[in-house]
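In this supplementary section we document a worked example of the pipeline. Step one takes a protein sequence of length 330 as its only input; no multiple sequence alignment statistics are reported here. Step two produces a three-dimensional model, which step three serialises into structure tokens for compact storage. The input and output of this example are shown verbatim.
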Amino acid sequence: MRGVRDTAALAALLRDLKVRSGLTLRELEGRAQGRGDVLARSTVSDMLRGTRLPGPGTLAAYVRACGAAEEDVPVWLEARQRAEAAGTRPSEPAAEPGSADTGEPVRRTRPWATTVRLGGMRWWVRGRMRWRVLGGAATAGLAVVSIWTLSAAGDGPPSSPAPSDGPQAASRPLRGFAEIRPARSPHLCLTEGRDTRGEYLHAVAAQLPCEEARPPHTYLRPVDPSASRTTYYIEWQHPQQGRGCLTMRREGPGQDLLEPWPWKSCDATRPYQHFHIESADGAADRYLLRLEDPRRCVGLRGNSTRTGADVMVEPCDGTADQEFLISSVA
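The serialised model returned by step three reads:
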């Protein structure tokens, strides 16, 4: 925190604080209101992009909403004073992790694929890792955001489907843009989130409000279109990051979680990327997602219905948390 000397460095640490909180702008605004504070989403968006130095009241409300301890608020305010005294701003707005710097308000508040570590900033660019160091140091060290970029030779940018009105039975054969919703929580959609235990720091699949679920856009793609009973890639498409497929982690702290892999790493020889989609107990509108081993199903960690709960692969047990609605998105 003592390394903050300008608006850009302060904005970088504020973005890091938001990533660690796991909260959306809307959730931050609601938490601030619950404390009697005012925290407008538009103001926070500008603050995170580095286009506006936040006022002391706004900064205090923001760090409290992110879960910072009350005794940490003065430290943040001192960092703001140093940034204000420097009177410097970035020549161009700083984009949030995982978003392109277009000058337009950032709609997506969750990073496409991020991890917070010590050291510097590393960006995956076409399969090679390049290192950059963030300006400004937090108390524990420099925040690091690792953003994976997806690319596929000859593939143009993904199209953006229009949102659907709600759950509906998936058509046969399954293919195309879709929403995958937990049957018990149809207002939530499977999309990009974070490990709720904090053990694995890359992006993983989780359930979040459907209005916040795009991008990435979900596309069901048959592994073998000519097969009568094919498995599917659950493909994620992003207007900046490109294409990826959900892949089960087989070892390490994120074991059994689903994370997006670059599309070039998705192929027919990797069964831990292939999903069997079948009716749940013959129901026309509910589906099981089986992966690799037919005795293992996709479900929610701890059978949770909470917003942000992460998706994981677990033994099939017939419980409702392993049933999903699949709606096509025209």
